Amino acid sequence: MVDQITAAMAAALIFLTGAIVALLVRSRRLAAERASAERQIAELERRLAAAETAQEAAESAAIEKEQLAAIGELSAMIAHEIRNPLTIIGNAVTTLRRRETTPEDRATLFGILEEEAGRLNRLMNDLLSYARPVSLELQPVELREVIERALSLVPAGGGVDVELIEPEPVGEVLADPNLLRQVFENLVTNAAQAMSHEGGTLTVRIERSAAGQPSGVNVLVEDTGEGMDTSVRDRALLPFFTTRPSGTGLGLAIVARFVRAHGGKLELKSAAGTGTTVRVFLPREELRNDVGESHIRIKQRAAAAAARRAI
Ligand SMILES: Nc1ncnc2c1ncn2[C@@H]1O[C@H](COP(=O)(O)OP(=O)(O)OP(=O)(O)O)[C@@H](O)[C@H]1O
Ligand SMILES: [Mg+2]
Questions:
Q1: Which domains does the chain have, with CATH numbers?
Q2: pLDDT score at 303
């Protein structure tokens, strides 16, 4: 009996030892498989990181290429704009140096020097206005006052009659007064220049947008001047496009940029010989009279953020 028990225990012991050995072997194999899988994951992660780095490098190279192309294009346009006045200044100085130049010629040449220096100065200011990031300083602005001031730029007695029509007072808009001033000065100057030969009427209408349209104010700057044919109208908003000998061609590009910065819209209607109408739409923001002060500040910040995103 005892022998039988001992034999059974020995058999159980052998079975248990076998099972433990089998378990140990299995767990070693599993550990080895796990280590191998971890190595594979690490390798895949390394490859993914390398691919991401390569993609980032390719993207930044593409962006840099685009930026360089844009800078190249802009530099070529600026160089073209600067070269003419510099050539004229150079020629004028050469002539001034000659002994035989008469006092009358000298006076003319000094006039040319002054004019061309002024042109370069204007170009520099326009370039800065156009290229600088727009930062809006929004505040309630009496639109009529800004427009009246811009209209005062039209020289009296030059054959251009000026009219300002505001069927009902539109009051204030939330805007950057400095940018709005530049918008309307450019538009009024363009309109006056378009009528400089024949004279005509410059009419500015300020009106609330019609019911059913986005809430805001429309300003229509209308002239009866030379107008634009389709090819001029299509290119008028492009920077450096000009048909005027002393123009920089940045006026309307600046106007478009500033109007967009306000969340507004710019529209040109024109045909050769029939005059031009430029419509500026400025969206309406609730003002001090309508809402509480803190609300205004929040709206101002929101509008400024939206405008920055739009630029
Ligand atoms: N009211 C207008 N009537 C006719 N043509 C216009 C009018 N406004 C603009 N244009 C055309 O669009 C072009 C571009 O106008 P823009 O104001 O950008 O430049 P510019 O007036 O030529 O020069 P500047 O940079 O000095 O304003 C003008 O040269 C002109 O051909
Ligand atoms: Mg202009």
A1: 1-132 (no CATH), 139-307 (3.30.565.10)
A2: 52
